[in-house]
Amino acid sequence: MDDVMSQLALERSQVYMADGTFKSPFASTTIEKLPDKVLLNIFSYLSHREICRMARVCKKWRIIAYDTKLWRHVSLRPEISGLHVGSLEFLLALISIRFGPSLRYIELPIELITHTVLHELANKCPNLTHMLLDFSTAMQLHDFSELQGFPTKLKYLCICLSEVIFMEGFMRKIYNFINGIEILHLVGTYEKVEEEEEEVYEVINVHKLKSATPNLKVINLYGINFIDDSHIDAFSSNCIQLECLAVNYCSKVTGSTLKILFHRNRRLRCLLLNGTSLQSEYLMQVEWEKCPLLELDITATDLSSEALTDMLTRLPGLRFLSAGQLNGFNDSVLKAWMEQGNVRNLVALDLDSSDNLSDDGMYKFLSKYGHQLQGLCLSGMSNITDTLWQSVLPILNNAKILVMGTPERLAGNVLIDQLMDGIASNCPKLERLELRWDPENLRFSDKSQKAIDTMRVKCLKLKSLVISDGRYYEIVKANFERADRMTVVRTLTNCRVSNYYLLSNYKDLIFN
């Protein structure tokens, strides 16, 4: 019966020709005959740089490439998108003709941030809600004395600061237009700072800015060398709806205003303090048992074991903890947290390079709580070997993110085939995996393709598999590419995996 139905289906799909041959009715179909709606949908998967290339093919493709629906999210920073606008006149034409009411998101480099451009965006793009202004390479600003208009429906504003340009002249002009902003990013020059510290300039007046933005829910102050505790106090005094505060790599933050921060901001759920100069005494003054805090990052903050124990045993319901590179985080802290704290809500744990944790202590913790973890990072510790991972993988059946291994050369070897097979068998929900082991420590056999095949077939949600450059990386990459999963396997040189994907406000915290 099945054979008969298959034959009928085959006959329906063929046309009988005069010479006795059969021809498919789709044989003469080409891409030019696709409906415009279908072509538009195909183009929507391309980058804007690729869309511009497609516009050169023919008149029809040019019309589709210029459809405003394809230009809702636009970056005009060449280093990000590859798009370069050569003149202000051309940009003004684009805003009127190509962007218009469809535009929702735009990124502008310093040379395109002028009062004329901002006026045009305000007038021609009424639905613009997300904007990034990149002043990071500025040596001087344009004249904004005539600036009388600015997009008024913004919910997201990201400003990349210059380390030498004072922004107050520009900011004073836009204060009246940005009181609806809910997500604010101020991005500093942390990655450009040289070893010899020069004089620090407060290039933007945070105390005035907080008065103009009372509706902020997410504040991200990233790598700004002048941000200190007084600025945190300023935002906390005016932003009563604050849910997420990130001050990663703001080295002058010590935590002296954290107590009053939690007292004022009862909705604060996420606090990210990676790379700050937190002092243990200030953390021990916080009434943690009354805090609504659910997500905390204290990586590389040099807190004492006493402060860590005090905080973890009093926090009522932590779901996300990143506490890597802390000498004070040891087995005693972990034991006290298990016995006196509340770990039942924890779904993400990052203890990268916490060398004072033993494999036995981690095994006891994971045996009890590993089943609830969606993200686990135990990298940078030579004592946490593939043997421990093999023993706990059956418990980590809900894991979405795993980071393991250390780049340091180990005395023993990592049996990577067995590990990959164990991950594939026990972690069907896995989305991101990073193996940081030195390629010289990876031992695999001629049958390694079978283990890779098992992972590829069983871990269907896998989006990112990061491995150190080497022979094994090439084998895994080739395997996934043969299965048309071209973007999964990546190298540690240009990609890292983090539990940050599990933050409630992760999408709000993304910036370029």
TrEMBL record:
Entry keywords, A to Z: Ubl conjugation pathway
GO biological process terms held by the UniProt record: positive regulation of protein ubiquitination
Record has Transmembrane helix as a keyword: no
Origin: domain of life: Eukaryota
Domain F-box span(s) in chain numbering: 28-74
Matches recorded under Gene3D superfamilies: Ribonuclease Inhibitor
InterPro entries named among the record's database cross-references: F-box-like_dom_sf, F-box_dom, Leu-rich_rpt_Cys-con_subtyp, LRR_dom_sf
Stored PROSITE patterns: FBOX
Protein name: F-box domain-containing protein
Species in which this protein is naturally found: Photinus pyralis
